[in-house]
UniProtKB/TrEMBL annotation:
GO terms for molecular function: ATP binding; helicase activity; hydrolase activity. Gene3D superfamilies: P-loop containing nucleotide triphosphate hydrolases, Tandem AAA-ATPase domain. Residues 427-464 form a coiled coil. PROSITE patterns: HELICASE_ATP_BIND_1, HELICASE_CTER. Residues 114-286 form the Helicase ATP-binding domain. Pfam families: Helicase_C, SNF2-rel_dom. This is Helicase-like. Residues 479-640 form the Helicase C-terminal domain. SMART domains: DEXDc, HELICc. CDD domains: DEXDc_RapA, SF2_C_SNF.
Length: 829
């Protein structure tokens, strides 16, 4: 139409996309530009300059009701997009239907029976290790996203688990979370990084130790915050005074800035009731404030299920049996002579450190403790440790003589180590930092005396190492020859994980095992110095490559990794923190494990600490038989009054005294005997059970959800029509699978991240994802499956409006807040 025809009162189409406006005033600027003042259908006012070259885009809107004169198939696509976007209104388990998971009864009940009904949520999910708490959190999160109840979500986890969280949420749920990294913060230096990244994963200690990040966090509001390994956020009463750790203070802050708060841990109770009550104040301060003597009532705020009571939908046990066996051995005469000499050196050092007092005492005591543990680990570990210590102390002596020495020894809180105040990587770094330098010697004369003693120990350790008569290795060799060198019933090679406490021992075992197997490439190793990306690659090789049979690991692999490809494990070194025993076993005793899990604990019975472990493991075996295996996951809670570390230190310092030995036996019998009985009885009352009636109700709920869900066939039809409408090419390959021969450039360039020009296989139904892991991963990234969330909501304004949908896009292009396709992404062009 001509610009001269635009008069006040005229209804015009084309000025604003997909909307009719009413002209209020028209003001000419020259002969080719007309400034229009208009009112929208919603009553809003606006102004726009229209040029003569654009006049053909405008038209007079028809009066009365709108005419539906566009292509009928286009209108059908818009209507179908709207219908699919509303699937959550009639599908009670939409997150299950749109995720690549097969949830189990206890997970369904946790998400749909415990978490979703509580608004706002303040809850502690405390199921046993390996029960799939990440899956439950992912289902809960996605359900809230699909219901548009959550737009900002923060995941807080230990450093070693953040990338695993990112992978699980993306590959299983199609949710793209950003990691809070230095690169991300540097790229948004003038912005609040928490405000600009609504879906974020952060490391727990990164937040707790950085005041600037906490200040930025305090200025934000979140819909949901999930904290993994939340038991690390502890507080304690010391001498009647409440002491809050930085992690606990972070937990308090997180509770203040979020509507929903979900804490997750497999070890919620440290054994101290008052500390447990303090921990629960993170969820409900009014309910748990103050020191209470009575047992805590956790109804409505906590859910706990133990492995032995978890069932499949068919009523079968979810986890297989696990068997732990102690393998005692005696040191040779040569090994025992070295053990006696080093133990004497450690005892004398500890006695001198006792006279120092304060933090210096703890630091020196910790260093000598590490030396004692390396003595028990391997001849290689103690030899190299003694050599390094001699070199460091000689360097310190020279600096004192030169007048250049500056006291800079770091200090360590042994209490935090016992209570998981440090993660495995941090402990490894502390040990390397302190072991070689921390000493009670304060003068040159004292250093000279210590260096002379160390020189003799180095000579003895070298003799033992070069002799090659390592009794501990002999026991491990026997296990390897019995279990690894023979194939299983299906002809597949068996896989085995070996945990050691020290990197020197790890390197030593890697060489010897590679030689024993005749295949050095069959052995992989993970320790604190292995970068996370490489750690994931090693894990992938171990779990997927049948030629890789042995994984050597320090405690850095005891947190968060899924290693159920193996069902055999050896504790070459036993940890002094009993919680780590279950953490290690939990790497293989997980959902998906279908074989009996076996664990061998190697113990030198004729050593002082070996005697403690022998007594402990014998008592544990007795309790395991009495309680059907429900022992390891509460072992840490048993040593509350007297930590296991304290028992072992007493054994090293005073183990020759009959009264000390009797006291140790008494503590072990009380802690592991009567103490475990009380703990297990208490847990039996506090934990939940899945009865047959519960399973029947859950099966019925799942069947109802399957019947109500939007079936893949409808999404398939809508996708094919919309995709071809926008220039894409898709053709059937075999039953249930298609080849996407071409993804048009305008679709690929519109989204974030790489999109391939073609995909060999794509499916609309998870049942057809069976062509191997690589193909399945592609299908997850670009899968026209029954993902209702892949369609944006649209308003059915006019049949002339083009359908705003491609049907689906790679999961990474979904809007992180709504779960729908991103505006401006492939589905909006």
């Amino acid at each position: 139409m001509l610009l001269e025809g635009l008069k006040p009162g005229l209804r015009v189409d084309g000025l604003i996309p997909a909307e009719v406006v009413t002209v209020i005033a028209a003001q000419w600027h020259g002969s080719d530009a007309l400034e229009l003042t208009y009112k929208t259908a919603a009553g809003g006012l606006g102004q726009q300059v229209v040029f003569r070259k654009d006049q053909d885009k405008l038209s007079v809107a028809q009066t009365g009701s709108r005419a539906f004169d566009a292509n009928a198939s286009d209108f059908k696509l818009v209507a179908e997009a709207q219908r699919i976007s509303l699937a959550g209104l009639f599908d009670p388990m939409l997150a299950v239907a749109t995720s690549d998971v097969q949830p189990l009864p206890h997970q369904i009940r946790a998400v749909y029976g415990e978490l979703l009904p509580r608004t706002p949520l303040r809850f502690l999910l405390a199921d046993d290790p390996g029960a799939g708490k990440t899956i439950m959190a992912g289902l809960y999160l996605k359900e809230l996203l699909l219901r548009d109840d959550v737009k900002q979500c923060l995941i807080v986890a230990p450093g070693g688990l953040v990338e695993q969280w990112q992978d699980e949420l993306f590959f299983k749920f199609g949710l793209r979370f950003d990691l809070l990294t230095n690169q991300l913060m540097d790229s948004q230096v003038n912005l609040n990084v928490f405000e600009t990244n609504p879906l974020l994963i952060a490391r727990m200690d990164q937040l707790s130790r950085n005041e600037q990040l906490r200040a930025q966090l305090r200025e934000t509001e979140w819909d949901l915050i999930v904290v993994d390994e939340a038991h690390r956020m502890g507080a304690h009463y010391f001498g009647g005074k409440l002491e809050k750790t930085k992690r606990f203070q972070l937990g308090e802050l997180l509770g203040e800035i979020t509507r929903h708060l979900l804490l997750m841990t497999a070890t919620p109770h440290s054994g101290k009731e008052e500390d447990f009550q303090l921990f629960l104040t993170l969820l409900d301060r009014d309910r748990f404030e103050g020191r209470q003597k009575k047992t805590t009532d956790t109804s409505g705020i906590m859910r706990r299920l133990v492995k032995e009571e978890l069932l499949t939908f068919e009523g079968k046990n979810l986890f297989p049996e696990r068997v732990a066996e102690t393998v005692p051995y005696e040191l040779t005469a040569l090994e025992y002579a070295l053990y006696a000499d080093v133990t004497h050196y450690v005892r004398e050092g500890m006695n001198r450190a006792d006279r120092l007092g304060g933090k210096r005492k703890n630091t020196v005591g910790f260093a000598l403790t590490v030396l004692q543990r390396r003595l028990a680990s391997s001849p290689e570990a103690i030899y190299k440790s003694l050599v390094r210590r001699s070199e460091r102390l000689e360097g310190k002596r020279q600096e004192i003589l030169n007048g250049t020495y500056r006291e800079s020894e770091p200090t360590v809180d042994l209490g935090e180590i016992d209570e998981d105040g440090y993660n495995a990587e941090e402990i490894e770094e502390l040990e390397e930092d302190l072991l070689d330098a921390a000493t009670a010697a304060q003068t040159v004369e004292e250093l000279n005396a210590e260096l002379i003693e160390l020189a003799e120990l180095v000579k003895t350790a070298k003799i033992v190492r070069d002799a090659g008569t390592d009794r501990k290795w002999t026991e491990l060799s026997n296990i390897l020859q019995d279990e690894v060198l023979t194939a299983d019933a299906n002809g597949w090679p068996r896989k085995l994980i070996i945990f050691t406490e020290h990197r020197d021992t790890l390197d030593y075992l890697r060489a010897r095992i590679g030689s024993l197997l005749g295949k050095p490439d069959a052995v992989r190793a993970i320790h604190g110095g292995v970068r996370r990306g490489e750690r994931r690659q090693i894990t992938e090789e171990f779990t997927k490559n049948r030629d890789v049979q042995i994984l050597l690991a320090t405690n850095a692999a005891g947190e968060g990794l899924n290693l159920q490809a193996a069902h055999l494990m050896v504790n070459y070194d036993l940890p002094w923190n009993p919680n780590r025993i279950e953490q290690r076993f939990g790497r293989i005793h997980r959902i998906g494990q279908d074989k009996v899990c076996r664990l061998w604990n190697l113990v030198a019975s004729n050593t002082r600490e070996g005697e403690v472990f022998t007594r402990l493991l014998a008592k544990l075996d007795q309790m395991r038989q009495d309680y059907g295996g429900k022992v390891f996951d509460v072992l840490g809670e048993a040593f509350t009054e007297t930590p296991l570390r304290a028992l072992l230190l007493d054994a090293i310092q005073y183990g020759e005294r009959p009264d000390v030995k009797a006291k140790m036996h008494e503590v072990i019998d009380a802690s592991v005997g009567d103490g475990l009985k009380d703990l297990l009885d208490e847990r039996a009352l506090a934990s939940e059970h899945l009865a047959e009636a519960d399973l029947q109700r859950l099966r019925a709920a799942m069947d109802e959800a399957r019947a109500k869900r939007l079936q893949p066939h409808y999404v398939e039809l809508a996708f094919k029509a919309a995709f071809t409408r926008l220039g894409g090419r898709i053709a059937r390959r075999e039953r249930g699978r298609y080849e996407i021969a071409n993804v048009p450039q305008h679709l690929r360039s519109a989204g974030r991240g790489p999109i391939a020009t073609k995909y060999d296989r794509a499916t609309f139904d998870l049942a057809h994802c069976d062509h191997g892991c690589k193909v399945v991963r592609w299908l997850i990234e670009f899968r026209p499956v029954h993902r209702m969330s892949c369609f944006p909501s649209v308003m059915l304004r006019n049949a002339r409006e083009y359908p705003r949908t491609v049907g689906t896009v790679p999961a990474r292009h979904l809007d992180p807040r709504s779960g729908r396709a991103r505006r401006g992404g492939p589905s909006w062009r």
